[in-house]
Amino acid sequence: MSQIKSQVCGWVEQGHVTQEQANTLYRQVTVLPDASSWRGLIANLLLWFGALSFASGVIFFFAYNWQSLGRFAKFGLIEVAIVLAIGAFAWLYYRANSLSAASHSHSHSNQSNDSRFGGTTANGVLLAASVLVGGLLALVGQTYQTGADPWQLFALWALVILPFAWVAGFDGLWLLLVGLINLSIGIFLDSFSHLWGAFLDEQGQLLIFICLNLAIYYAFVLLDRNVAGRWHAPILEYACSLFAMGCFTWLITWLIFDDFFKGDGFSTGVISGYLAHLVLGFVIFRYRLPRIYPLALGGFSLIAVGAALLIRLMFEDNDPIGGFLFIGLYIILASTGLSIWLKELSRKLKPLSQSMSELEPEPMSELEPDPAARATQGKVGDIHEQQ
Predict the structure, then answer these.
(1) Taking every annotated instance into account, which residue ranges of this chain make up the domain DUF2157 (predicted)?
(2) CB-CB neighbours of 336 under 10 Å
């Protein structure tokens, strides 16, 4: 929507269209959500909260009545809940498949998603089943006192729900799976830190998380191009890239203030890898797979690293007052320049919709405004005049 406003405002500034023609075009190409759209959004949110509340309620029920329930009652109740959830998912899966195959009113993307992985209700039920699987594994450990380390619980939990995530192919389960993997690796490294403390310190452990989440991110980015639907998990991609770049920025800043000038092999390798990743990411997401979000992460990460380097260089032997002024000015100018560049790049990488691209400025006078739309839609010409 913002891209349409910017493009039409640009046409108004260049004199290609008048304000009335811009208002007409805006009413023709924009669609505001109606009451049914809001009802669908609220229904989906209630569904997800209901699925998570159901799974959490089952787990809290066992925790509250732990002394009152017998061993077989505990296992029977939670296993029955898991079986019912999986059965409900299978029924909803094939029901959504049949409905999407018979329906011709939805778009092709929605048909593909529903026919392969079931509707949103099926995914919500499977998410509840995945949470209950974790409760079952914890119940086994508490009942039989297996003596397993906590990292084994989360690793086994992630392994068990991996088929669920692969079948469903939606963000919620992928995000849960990746979170469990990171959590199990973190607990594992912390539990056995005495074994490799000499050659794998906290910086090395942080590097493991960086490599893991970057590998997951690039795997989903590349697979999303080749397999329709199953590997499309934008929320997971945002989370993995944000976590990886945040850890990368933290590690580089740590090295700058710690042993950046010592020139050891680890620091040199990490700095080289960071710069190589920034260059590689710029080439991929600027020219091969144009995306704004990873470019923004890399740009602001570089600004933060530059600020840390300036602090290290300037505050050792110089007056801190002037250094604070210079570094503050650097952050403001660099952030502003990066934001302006990203905004201009966004206009190029995100073209207008197909209906927008088919309309030329010349035949604007042929478009007649819809009286009903005029009462409900905004006016780009008025927006431009206010700007």
Answers:
(1) 11-174
(2) 10
Question: Structural domain boundaries of the chain?
Answer: 69-191, 199-351
d(CA 57, CA 61): 6
pLDDT tens digit string along 252-282?
998 888 866 566 777 888 889 999 999 999 9
CA angle 69, 71, 76 (to 5 degrees): 90
What is the structure's pLDDT at 301?
A: 95
Selection from 155, 151, 135 nearest residue 143 by Cα: 135
- Encode 226-256: b = buried (16+ Cβ within 10 Å), e = exposed: eeeebbbbeebbbbbbebbbbbbbbbbbbbb
Question: pTM score, two decimals?
Answer: 0.74
**What are 18-57's pLDDT values in tens digits?**
777 767 766 666 666 678 878 877 887 788 788 888 888 8
State both tokens at 69: 């329930």
Q: Find out whether 118 and 170 touch, Cβ atoms under 8 Å.
A: no
CB atoms under 10 Å from CB of 83, counted, come to: 12
Structure tokens given for 97: 């498949």
For tokens 């032997």, what's the residue?
Answer: 317
Residue 104 has pLDDT above 70, yes or no: no
